[in-house]
Amino acid sequence: MVEILLATHNAGKIREIRRLAADAPLVWHGLDDFPAVPEAVEDGATFSANARKKALHFAAATGLLALADDSGLEVDCLAGAPGVHSARYAGYAHDYAANNRRLVAAVSGVAPAQRTARFRCVMALARPGEVVLETDGQIEGLIVTESRGTGGFGYDPHFLVPQFNRTLAELPPDDKNAISHRGNALRAMLIQIEQWLRGQGDWPA
How far apart are CA 198 and CA 204, in angstroms? Predict the structure, then answer.
């Protein structure tokens, strides 16, 4: 089995990633297993920069392969905001209610059809000193001002997926994971992990 550190404390992300990777021959460790390791500084200008910084930081600190992601919401009528600042859009880390209130206020004067947006997720896998893999997943949608659904987390209640006419928070977990930005990035990552490790001769038979 291949051991990988999942470099996040975000419970929602952890649930989604473990569900998506349940069939992969991987052993996942969480950051709670390494309480003495300090947090990574996320000051990159792009999702890729932050994902790479986190993966390299935690790989160096633990000696394990580390999988990190940075993800967020890009709203076209807001010039791509909140972007890399999605988690702290309202000024406080992971205050989902405050972030959503600011988002609704920002788009309330925009016609519904013009509230196009996407969730993006960039994942990076690093070993100590080197990023070895990177993937990028997206999902397109529209921002709705009314909160719809109780599932998911973050901006999910305000992100409408047109093909289902439901928000991500209204979709069952398996349906959400089948189309989500994180699901798309992780599926691509799992394929690359298998290919990379097979090339190294380390993938278990």
Answer: 8
Where in the sequence numbering do the catalytic residues fall? 70
Quick one: which H or E segment has residue 6? strand 2-6
CATH of the domain at 77: 3.90.950.10
CA distance linking residue 158 with residue 84, whole number of Å: 18
Furthest CA-CA distance within the chain:
57
Give domain status of residue 56, yes or no: yes
What are φ and ψ of residue 43, in 5° steps?
-120, 20
- Does the residue 205 lie in any domain? no
Q: Give the model confidence (pLDDT) of 138-197 as tens digits.
A: 999 999 999 999 988 899 999 999 999 999 999 998 899 899 998 899 889 988 887 877
Output DSSP code: residue 150: S
The model's pLDDT over 36-69, given as tens digits with 9 standing for 90+, comes to 999 998 899 999 999 999 999 999 999 999 999 9
Q: How many domains does the chain have?
A: 1
Range of the domain at 178: 2-200
Angle separating helix axes 11-20 and 181-200, nearest 10 degrees: 60
Report residue 18 as tokens. 């473990």
The CA distance from 54 to 123, in Å, is 10
